[in-house]
Amino acid sequence: MPIESTDALAAGCLMEEDSMNAVTVPRTVFLDVDGTLVTYDNVLPDSAVRAIKEARTAGHRVYVCTGRSRAEIPETMWVIGLDGMIGGNGAYVEDGGEVLLHQHLSAAQCEQAVSWLRRRGLEPYLEANSGLYASPIFRDTARSAIRAYATGKGTTGASSMEVDDAFPGMVFTDELVRDDVNKISFLLNSPEADLAAARRKFPDLIVGSWGGSGHEPLFGDVSCAGVSKRHAVDVLLAHRGAARRDAVAFGDAAVDIEMLEHCGTGVAMGNGSREVKDAADLVTDDVEADGLAKAFRRLGLNG
After folding, report:
1. Which of 55, 120, 203, 214 is packed most tightly, with the most Cβ within 10 A?
2. Do 145 and 87 fall within a single domain?
3. Does 39 fall in a domain?
């Protein structure tokens, strides 16, 4: 059974009293981004920044492990002092500026997927380390899905959100064939039927979904076979010569479950779903309630 924290000030007191001693073995810490490191309004809590800096000073290494591509990691996140990242839900691994893994779609795979999706009326956008790319019509076709996603996450101003708000810096172009794409996300019209058709069409690729909050998913995605956060964690740990039992993973979404179960210690955010909490060793508070910092303290990562 996972250990659950309580809310607000009481949780802070509980964490102080029950806090483990500072760990002597260096840990490798993997942080999901949205809903874990930053709030659903994309706010990076000061408490999380302090906790990460203290953990790194104590000799631990800290990486983000996210569905975002490298282009979606802002400088404000890097200046915390992150040691590297896992991006594209495991398609890309970077440690100290060295690229250890980059599983990306070929130009031919990209062209085939984009053509089929557009013929079916499932407008796609490309996620690459160089940026996000979509056709000019994506602004209009994706508006309702973006607002539904933001509403489900409790994002401020969700009802008036535009695609440019959700994806700042997205490049709008009719040239949607590239050879550096980590994954292709696409709108869903009839989720069950669309995803089943995509899996039949692309049996050599992974077809997933995301964006639902208590209802059917809003987006599908296509990526290379073998891509997962779990595999990427193993690649990075092997490169560092670090043990899996000394790895700590934080997450809030279903895509994080495999990583939480695979690492020595799995931590679920309080804002995560019940299935995520059930998979974790520790459940901390919500991201907005300093959940990350409280868990770092509880695990003795601050030195």
Report:
1. 55
2. no
3. yes
Burial of 236 (0-12, 13-18, 19+ CB in 10 A): buried
* Domain, as residue range, for 249: 28-103+227-299
Residues 56 and 202 in one domain: no
- Where residue 79 sits, what CATH number does that domain have? 3.40.50.1000
Domain for residue 190, yes or no?
Answer: yes
**What pLDDT is recorded for position 303?**
80
Structure tokens belonging to residue 300: 């003795």
Q: How many CB atoms lie within 10 A of CB 248?
A: 25
Whose tokens are 């896992």? That residue is 86
Q: What distance in Å separates the CA atoms of residue 91 and residue 144, rounded to the nearest whole number?
A: 28
The Cα 70–Cα 92 span in angstroms is 8
Shortest CA distance to 220 belongs to which of 233, 237, 205, 232?
A: 205
Domain end point (choices 158, 193, 224): 224
pLDDT digits (tens, 9 = 90+) for 200-258: 999 999 999 988 655 578 999 999 999 999 999 999 999 999 999 999 999 999 889 99
- Measured in whole angstroms, the distance separating CA 191 from the mean position of its chain's CA atoms is 21
What value does the mean pLDDT of the chain take?
A: 91
For 124, 156, 206, the CA distances from 165, given in Å and listed in that order, are 18, 12, 28
Using an 8 Å Cβ cutoff, are 113 and 231 in contact?
Answer: no
CA neighbor of 176 nearest in space, from 100, 246, 122, 101 = 122
